[in-house]
Recover the amino acids of this structure.
């Protein structure tokens, strides 16, 4: 028994330290490296070909929107990458390491039945991603709100969508979770601005001043598409009335347009002697009579 174990160990040691094993391993590793290099080259060349095809298509008579073009281009590139690397993986197992692919696929079929229920989410994500692109719900570069994530779409993959918020965070949302989408990029936005005017100022004069400055905004700011429109007095407050304005802006620029309008209107009203009212602090002593109360108009709350 001892001799048998000793002989087996010696044969194993001879095989491990012999050149045949290492030549076989080296040959397999070399084949795997060559296959991977070929796969990388195919993916890079394929990406360049896809880019050139879309570039030539953009100059043709039949064109699609730029946002949709970028989305489809990235999807095709991702599909090419996944397909080539999967084929390379199979070739490495079969050609380099000599594994029986048929037996592996048969085993995968049996295992697939066991994990089929667990793969339902994966299938749902892929199908949802297809319909997102097919229905053009949103595209790369759009500013959207979905599943609690808000930001610019960076990539629409086969399984997930990547969204970057305006503060820099990246949200990765499974396509199957995209059940409701708010897309801010498909149509022009609407900037809504409320301006507080004191009761001491004439409403007609104030609206005329605001209208004059609004006429110049589209020429000075490309974000504002049309001349802002004065809707009128929105509400009556204790010390002022509120005049509401609306302005059509480029998609996703409704917030920037509102900031521009507030800045320009505030400056012109200040130059015309109309101060935007602010809460005032009234100070008095308990011993003073109501008729002798002093109001400090310069001190704000």
């Amino acid at each position: 028994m001892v001799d048998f174990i000793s002989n087996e160990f010696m044969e194993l040691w001879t095989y491990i330290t012999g050149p045949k094993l290492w030549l076989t391993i080296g040959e397999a590793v070399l084949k795997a490296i060559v296959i991977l290099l070929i796969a990388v080259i195919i993916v890079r060349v394929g990406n360049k070909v896809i880019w050139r095809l879309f570039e030539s298509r953009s100059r043709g008579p039949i064109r699609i929107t730029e946002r949709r073009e970028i989305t489809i281009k990235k999807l095709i590139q991702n599909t090419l990458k996944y397909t080539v690397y999967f084929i390379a993986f199979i070739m490495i197992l079969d050609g380099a390491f000599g594994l029986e692919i048929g037996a592996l696929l048969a085993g995968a079929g049996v295992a697939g039945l066991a994990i089929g229920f667990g793969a339902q989410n994966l299938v749902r994500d892929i199908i949802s991603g297809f319909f997102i692109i097919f229905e053009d719900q949103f595209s790369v570069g759009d500013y959207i709100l979905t599943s609690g994530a808000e930001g610019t779409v960076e990539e629409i993959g086969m399984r997930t969508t990547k969204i970057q918020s305006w503060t820099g965070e990246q949200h990765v949302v499974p396509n199957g979770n995209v059940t409701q989408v708010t897309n801010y990029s498909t149509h022009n936005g609407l900037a809504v601005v409320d301006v507080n005017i004191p009761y001491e100022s004439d409403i007609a004069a104030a609206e005329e001043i605001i209208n004059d400055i609004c006429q110049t905004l589209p020429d000075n700011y490309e974000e504002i598409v049309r001349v802002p429109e004065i809707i009128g007095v929105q509400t009556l407050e204790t010390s002022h009335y509120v005049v509401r304005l609306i302005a059509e802006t480029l998609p996703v620029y409704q917030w920037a347009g509102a900031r521009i309008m507030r800045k320009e209107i505030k400056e012109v009203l200040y130059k015309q002697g109309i101060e935007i009212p602010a809460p005032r602090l009234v100070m008095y002593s308990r011993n003073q009579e109501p008729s002798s109360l002093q109001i400090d108009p310069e001190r704000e709350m």
User: Anything to note?
Assistant: Confidence is low (pLDDT under 50) at residues 297-301. The longest helix spans residues 19-58. The domain at 124-183 is CATH 2.30.30.60 (SH3 type barrels.). Residues 210 and 265 are 6 Å apart (CA to CA).
